[in-house]
Amino acid sequence: MTPEFAPSTDAPALSEASRLSAVFFDPRRAFSDIAARPRWVVPLLLSLLVSLAFVYTFSRRVGWEHYLERTLETNPRTETCPSSSAGRSSSNSCRW
User: What does the alpha-carbon distance between residue 89 and residue 47 come to, in Å, rounded to a whole number?
Assistant: First the structure.
């Protein structure tokens, strides 16, 4: 059984910037280039940059302490914790 889509290898290879813009403006050409010559370094770097930007922005805007306090307040499993560990949101004294 052969695949229905066979990428053409006679087309010139797209650069990484051209490939990224072609994903949005000329998807057929971009995905045929990706199928013909898959590369993983640039998508990995883009994913890392987006992840780091999200974590940095979340840390600056919301804050991890505030997030953990809100999560522990709304979690029904924290009601079973002893009262001495109720004030310590970052400790691991409450065992489930």
Answer: 30
What pLDDT is stored for residue 76 in this prediction? 83
Q: How many contiguous H segments (helices) and E segments (strands) does the chain have?
A: 4, 0
Rounded CA separation 68/94 (Å): 14
Angle between helices 27-36 and 16-25 (to 10 degrees): 140
Residues whose CB falls within 8 Å of the CB of residue 30, separated by 6 or more in sequence, listed in order: 14, 19, 22, 23
Q: Is 93 helix (H, G, I), strand (E, B) or coil?
A: coil
Domain boundaries, given as residue ranges, for the chain? 16-74
Q: Phi, psi at residue 5, to the nearest 5°? A: -105, 115
Tens of pLDDT, residue by residue over 41-65, are: 999 999 999 999 999 999 999 888 9
Nearest 5°: phi and psi at 19?
-65, -40
* Average pLDDT over the chain, rounded to an integer: 81
